[in-house]
Amino acid sequence: MYPGTEGLPPRVALLQLITASWVSHAVRTMAVLGVADHLADGPRTVGELAEATGTDAPTLARFMRALAALGLVAHDAAGRVGLTPLGEPLRAAVPGSLRSYALAIAAPSVERAWHDLPNALRTGEPSFPDVHGLGFWDYLAAHPEEGALFDAAMTGSAELRSGVLPAAVDLSAIGTLIDVGGGQGRMLAAALASAPGLRGVLADRSEVLPGAEAFLDAAGVRDRCDLVAVDFFESVPTGGDAYVLAHIVHDWPDEQAVAILRTCHQAMAPGARLWVVEQVIQPGDEYDRAKLLDMLMLVLFGAQERTADEYRSLLQAAGFGEVVIHPTDTPYSVIETVRH
Ligand SMILES: C[S@@+](CC[C@H](N)C(=O)[O-])C[C@H]1O[C@@H](n2cnc3c(N)ncnc32)[C@H](O)[C@@H]1O
């Protein structure tokens, strides 16, 4: 059951589900206006905030009331508006900021694909290419501002999965870790920080690498890291003791997912490890955000979230053998296999 609806009369709970996108619109608009950054130095009057955000003060006062109802801001006794701990990660310049995530995942281009979910269910095909005339990755390449926002969004959301490798596997035995589709390198940076003897290779689309270089530099690990432009359907770097695919396989339908895994298999030497970091769908009807993420994967890519057995089948189809799944105390698991 959707969190917060337990125990409510069915019609009341249903109204909450029907209108859940209102919340998303409000959070995205808070990010668009940069409200959290304008409140970073402490509470301000609505008038001050309206001037800073270029908005109409009486209308903004109503918006602040809505945001306060969601717990993202709070009014003090003098009526000024301040940021709450829930609103804090919507600041742009805090570690693990989710501002880019709010802007990119709730972007109008993505929303338009969601609106076509009924059609995606009829056809089993993604709606994003129909709506925009381009597949998602080509669209990002053609719209560099949205592309940069998406990369930053992944870095923000990668905060949650960044620590899973050091927590779940032994990095001390690894000389070189190759992060395939590593984005800006948030996960690689965490792995390098946790294992001083480790070297890293970040392999991603060429458009992503300048942002990755800046990120790895700022994280203080650039000197232990190479950056390589790849198309992971063609090739990935050889020479890794371990390869990680974090939040990659779920972006692709089975055929392409197997193709990416095969490219890795071909590049890997016998004994090299592969770590697939994903949310593994559990059996049963429990609420799991990944079951809704699954629908986003459908509309964007015609792709899907998967169960443990589905990940095993993909890996076996790509030539890998035994699979061990390491759950973590995050929503992510490390799905481990070895190249024989
Ligand atoms: C959902 S993001 C995941 C990024 C990162 N691993 C993380 O955990 O946040 C998917 C990544 O796959 C990369 N990608 C998409 N198509 C690719 C391709 N054909 N070759 C290499 N990388 C690709 C994207 O640029 C993006 O960085």
UniProtKB/TrEMBL annotation:
PROSITE patterns: SAM_OMT_II (PS51683). GO terms for molecular function: O-methyltransferase activity; protein dimerization activity. Keywords: Methyltransferase, S-adenosyl-L-methionine, Transferase. InterPro entries: ArsR-like_HTH, COMT-like, COMT_C, COMT_dimerisation, SAM-dependent_MTases_sf, WH-like_DNA-bd_sf, WH_DNA-bd_sf. GO terms for biological process: methylation; regulation of DNA-templated transcription. SUPFAM superfamilies: S-adenosyl-L-methionine-dependent methyltransferases (SSF53335), Winged helix' DNA-binding domain (SSF46785). Gene3D superfamilies: 1.10.287.1350, Vaccinia Virus protein VP39, Winged helix-like DNA-binding domain superfamily/Winged helix DNA-binding domain. It comes from the Bacteria. The active site is at H250. Residues 15-88 form the O-methyltransferase dimerisation domain. Residues 114-320 form the O-methyltransferase C-terminal domain. This is O-methyltransferase domain-containing protein.
